[in-house]
TrEMBL record:
Membrane-protein topology: Multi-pass membrane protein
Gene Ontology cellular-component terms listed: endomembrane system
Keyword Transmembrane helix annotated: yes
Organism the protein comes from: Triparma columacea
UniProtKB keywords: Membrane, Transmembrane, Transmembrane helix
Compartment(s) where it occurs, according to its Swiss-Prot or TrEMBL record: Endomembrane system
Family that this chain belongs to: Belongs to the CCC1 family.
GO biological process, one term: intracellular manganese ion homeostasis
An example molecular function term from Gene Ontology annotations: manganese ion transmembrane transporter activity
Protein name according to UniProt: Uncharacterized protein
InterPro entries, sorted: Ccc1_fam
Keyword set includes Membrane: yes
One Pfam family from the record: VIT1
């Protein structure tokens, strides 16, 4: 049984971009409730992977660039790089978990308030929803009919109120577990992608012991540039931006960050006259 996930979502995007009506119909016919739920939760993981990965590789490469500009030894680059990457990855993971958990708890507390208001003053809440639907272009008679129909199902109606009045999505019952997963995904993506610019400093000396230190920095630049461009292309699959533009944009921003780090490292090294 097929499921709609962030990896299959581009099928709908591709159908839209190509104005392929049959492909769009086939994609929507294959969807079902469980798949939609998977898609919604999966979107959070995609966000954590993309932003965690970008933060990780940019942070790591900034350290490498700054160290290269400061003319630091490769061993110092590795110590600074890996210690910062994993410390920051843990911090990002914990931060993602706590922020997601706090947000879900706040949303649920707002839902309890809306539920209490519906129980004690249903006519007021119903009128609020009618007014919202009228503002969106529905005539008064249709709005009353739709809202009164939905109000017959209190649990469902409260969720609709949350979305329409507060623009809040009520989390699933497994939100605590989901928060932990989001934190873990953020940690892993930050640590894995953040380690990539440092791999050249580990692998290349094992294969080519006589290469100059500059070659290590060049390898880090090449690896980081490729990964940034690829991540930008992947990110475009979940937005309306063309893959080449998204990849180039991500690569350019990453290069700008690294340039700033390199120039500052070089300046500080020149001012202090010290070499690690």
């Amino acid at each position: 049984m097929s499921e709609t996930t962030p990896l299959t979502q581009p099928t709908a995007r591709k159908a839209y971009d190509g104005q392929d009506l049959e492909a769009s119909k086939g994609f929507h016919d294959a969807r079902h409730v469980g798949a939609i739920e998977d898609h919604q939760s999966g979107g959070d993981y995609v966000k954590a992977i993309v932003f965690g990965g970008l933060d990780g590789i940019l942070t790591s490469f900034a350290i490498v660039a700054g160290s290269a500009g400061g003319n630091l030894a490769p061993s110092v680059v590795l110590v600074l790089g890996f210690s910062n990457v994993f410390a920051d990855a843990l911090s990002m993971g914990v931060g993602e978990f706590l922020s997601s958990k706090a947000h879900n708890e706040w949303v649920l507390s707002e839902r309890k308030r809306e539920q209490w208001e519906l129980e004690h003053y249903p006519e007021g809440e119903i009128q609020e929803m009618i007014d919202i639907y009228i503002e969106r272009g529905m005539n008064q008679e249709d709005a009353k009919m739709v809202i009164n129909k939905m109000a017959k199902y209190p649990e469902f109606f409260v969720d609709i109120m949350m979305a329409e009045e507060l623009q809040l999505q009520v989390p699933e019952d497994s939100h605590k577990c989901d928060s932990m997963k989001e934190g873990l995904v953020m940690f892993l993506s930050f640590a894995i992608f953040g380690s990539l610019p440092l791999l050249g400093y580990v692998i290349i000396p094992l294969c080519f012991s006589d290469l100059p230190e500059e070659a290590l920095f060049v390898s880090a630049c090449v690896v980081t540039g490729l990964v940034l461009f690829i991540m930008g292309c992947v990110k475009s699959m979940f937005s309306a931006t063309h893959w080449f533009i998204s990849g180039t944009e991500t690569l350019t921003l990453g290069g700008a960050c690294a340039t700033v780090a390199y120039v500052i490292g070089q300046y500080v090294e020149q001012q202090t006259g010290e070499k690690a």
